[in-house]
Amino acid sequence: MKRHLDYPDCTIYELTARTAEKYPEYCALNYFGRSVSYSRLITEIGRCAAALRAAGVKSGDAVSVCLPNTPEAVYLFYAINMTGAVANMIHPMSAENEIVRFVKLTDSRLIFAVDLISDKIERVMEKCSDLNAVKVSVSDSMPLHIKVGYSVMGKKPPKSAIRDWKSFIAGGSGRTAEVHHGASDDTAAILYSGGTTGRPKGIMLTNLNFNALALQSIEACGGLEAGMKMLSVMPVFHGFGLGVCIHTIMVLGGTAVLQPKFSAAEFHKLLFRYRPDIIAGVPAIFEAMIVNKSFEGKKLDFLKCIVSGGDSLAPSTKKKLNDMLAEHGCTAKVREGYGLTECVTGSCLMPAEYDDMLSVGLPYPDTFYKVIDREGNELPAGEEGEIILRGPSVMKGYYKEPEETAATLKMREDGNIWLHTGDIGCIGENGYVYFRQRLKRMIISSGYNIYPQNLEEVISSHSDVIMCAVVGVPDQLRGERVRACVVHKEGADEDKLRSELTTMLKSEIAAYALPREILFYDSLPKTLVGKIAYNELKS
Questions:
Q1: What integer is the mean pLDDT of 172-198?
Q2: Are 63 and 52 in contact (CB under 8 A)?
Q3: CA dist 467 to 26, 34, 266, 349, 485, Å?
Q4: 3-state per-residue secondary structure call for 322-345
């Protein structure tokens, strides 16, 4: 029987305010040990909204947010929504011309940016004549002793005349911002697709998209309770970070432990410092955990829910991680999900009680999956084709891109609009979803379709392999040739490993799909949101 939830007809701010009414004294944010209660969260959001109004922000305006995970970024996300404006979320490490494009695309007249890029923002302002800016330091909300240490050890921001956060908030002093009672279908935020192939597009996500995602995620995870802590390391300018690590936790009544800067190699320090109940991240975090010797002799029994998304986690890597967790007293197993920014983030998750290393689980409540062939015909269970889905978290469309929207959101004969993901997968007889490959990553060599994930699974199963990626490299003879890029354990003999991997691959993979080269790397390049930058591996 298909699961169903009731979704409130309200804004993201209003749903979070309801949580604050239930749990006013619970901790909403933890920032370097400084706690922000739900009661104070609403107060700070209100102050921020009043300052936005004083700065001239009106309902329907786009306000650009170019910040890492700080309390100010959270206040802004909800305050912008409270005023009826749209949060235009931009990665702080975006190139100058990218920021200019995102600002001009949305007609933003106000941008909040981390002070470390003030010089870049000043150049952006020169190219966007109507743009005003506010700089925010990651130290603004730190406890005093941490702030002092940060100012001594941290990177010094460039000198800038851009007004700071404190001055901005003071501008709203004496004002009270009224709550904008927006519709469920109003755009709450614009997020940008990863841009690993082609030009990033602005994805319009509504109040309903975020609210549904939060309620669905809580139901799909199961066992989550108000007061639980989540290590919120995924960035706020990414669907996973904003939708799960912030909004889902705010709707739950949990604590988001914010980290403005994150290193997978330092993840263990955060785990033992904050002892979170929930961790959610991309595979790179979990791959780093497997080889980190700092876990030796330490317990991980405080972890209750572990979710991996954003990229594929090889089954053999899942097994290595689950074995490692069990050795350290953790009864939870890593649960893989599947999704894309066009439906905020995950829309499918492996149930806690089910163990299928190859599946990404069951669709969220009120979310429906189909697999179709190239002609658009629905395929039976077990047959591979393009994954399409529909549900309350599916985007409104691409901002000012009607043709792209029409090519991705299509009405079918059942009268429903379906999101065409461009991903390959199948659905089992039991309704479980099997994600095979991003269609964009498919390699075509001598006319054959080659799916990198099949090769990556074989390579990852070797005990000396930490992580790998398989890409297609331009080849005059074949069109593309297969290249395997491998990160191995310290001290591994590369010649021996290359020979063993070749033998393994020959026994599992068709001859036409075998790598023509196996290259070794100290680490694989990452995109701005922590996924493998496959295009960089092709050069």
A1: 85
A2: yes
A3: 39, 36, 18, 23, 9
A4: HHHHHHCCCCCCEEEEEECHHHCC
